[in-house]
Amino acid sequence: MPESIIVDTSVLIALEKIELLRVLCKIYKKIILPDAVVKEFGNVNIDCYSVRKVESKLINILMFDLNLGRGESEVISLAYETDCRALIDDLKARKVAEDLGLSISGSIGVLLKAEKLGLIESAFKKAQELKDKGFYVSNELLDELSKFKS
């Protein structure tokens, strides 16, 4: 089973909307949720996670200088300090994480991994379902996913 992963609120919301929250437990050894993510998301209905209190000066820089949300800031700070991979969907937060040299993925990456592992039939269909439920998924990305088959 692959590594531990730090997960942002938007990924939890997206996976819950398409009833795939539990797939995280099948893909990753351990799900780490910063305190702020749990506060933003509410009741996390999976067993494989731990909550981490994040205390870092980087949080204030990310929130106040770069205008990121508390959850995103804690995810990025914790990933930076632990060298752990992170799941983030917000484009601005992803750019900041990449600029810091972090290894990141997002909801679509989880869908691709789930398809590759045989946990879901089609990442494309699940991404289309996400889009149908109001999440932003670009037509270009959907087009690329339609060509992909593990």
C-alpha-based Rg, rounded = 15 Å
Identify the strand order in the major beta sheet: 3-2-1-4-5
How many DSSP E strands?
5
Largest sheet: 5 strands, parallel
Tell me the overall shape: globular
CATH architecture classification name: 3-Layer(aba) Sandwich
Count the DSSP helices: 9
* Secondary-structure element pattern, one letter each: EHHEHEHHEHEHHH
Kindly provide the name of the CATH class: Alpha Beta
The domain tally reads: 1
Query: For the record, what is the CATH homologous superfamily label?
Result: 5'-nuclease
Strand content: 5-15%
* SSE class: alpha/beta
CATH topology: Rossmann fold
Mean pLDDT: 92
Head-to-tail CA distance between termini: 18 Å
Unreliable runs? none
Residues in helices, as a percent range: 40-55%
Explain what this protein looks like in three dimensions.
The chain is α/β, with parallel strands linked by helices and 150 residues long. It has one domain (4-108): 5'-nuclease (Rossmann fold), CATH 3.40.50.1010. Helix content is 54%, strand content 12%. It has helices at residues 9-17, 23-27, 35-41, 57-65, 70-82, 91-99, 107-116, 123-132, 139-147; strands at 4-7, 30-34, 49-52, 85-87, 104-105. Helix 3 links the parallel strand 2 and strand 3.
